[in-house]
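Problem 12. The chain below contains 374 residues. Write out its predicted structure in token notation.
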Amino acid sequence: MPLLATPFAELDLLRQPEQQAEPLQAFDAADEYLLAHLHEQDLAPGSRVLVLNDGFGALACSLSGHCQVTSSGDSYLGALALQQNLARNGLAADAVTFISASATPQGPFDWVQIRVPKTLALLEEQLIRLHGQLAPNARMVAGAMIKHLPRAAGDLLERYIGPVQASLAMKKARLLQVSPESRPTPTSPYPSRYRLDKPAIELLNHANVFCREGLDIGTRAFLPHLPRRLDACRVADLGCGNGVLGIAFALANPTAALTLVDESFMAVQSAEANWQAALGERAVTIRAGDGLAAQPADSLDLVLCNPPFHQQQVVGDFLAWRMFQQARNALVRGGELWIVGNRHLGYHAKLGKLFRGVEQVAATPKFVVLKATC
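Solution.
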């Protein structure tokens, strides 16, 4: 893979999770443009720089050792990539302070560098939280590949921070330079909430939660067909989002032991609040993580999953395939993986390569619910 060569450093970077013969690099032209722009500004060594949504650590690793760097994002895999890429390039682990997007970075910051995220609600919440965290004369710049840079991103920057000046394009990337101005203290519209009838629960959703404003249609197709297990089974909601599958299962199966895991910190924060509201003090494990990578082998009887088909802006089934492998490794013999997926994705064939048996539990014109048995 090519090195990231900028005026700050020359770095060998990897994405997370790692793939053999990785087809994608861990940085792009927007990262290069942001770093080149910052170098032109004669960055003072003692400057406090906040980096938002740094996909795999390209920005924070490059700046480490040149200034005081705080990185914040909503991806556990992004945080893992930052940690591993610091080590891979011989950089100190404490050279960058990481703050999950479910918390507020503490300024004052002299510079803010932003990779515009796919979910603009996340950007909006981050900008709202920056109120009171900018130093006098602070400067801010956001960057993205042009094909992933909606006009609404500039509108949000102008609404919450100050006037925006778009740069010329460079290698299909563009920067939005922002001049911070005094603004009234904003009120965040997040988290949002919606109610379900079956089960009768209200779900809280922080800004970066998938289908924040209502139940996604895949989960809606899955819920009526969740298995009933009246034994004390060990169950994981893999890629739990706001926790709806795990919570619905737990309500119908009072002796089950649940683990809810997601790589989004805001999803985990939402799931924790929703579990507490629906199930009170009932024991549960809810964590941010790389799927079931940390789950011991033969430790689960059942895994529920509505797998994603994208990582950031990249669409594909790599993450879903990896989640299926993790589930197989964590399940006991005879254990079951239940999933919902779009018909056209062909998960039946993929699961058949990993599991002893695969059967269709239910179907709609768009989705299938599948059970795979170890």
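Discussion. The domain at 192-373 is CATH 3.40.50.150 (Rossmann fold). Students who got a different answer should revisit the alignment rule from Section 12.3.
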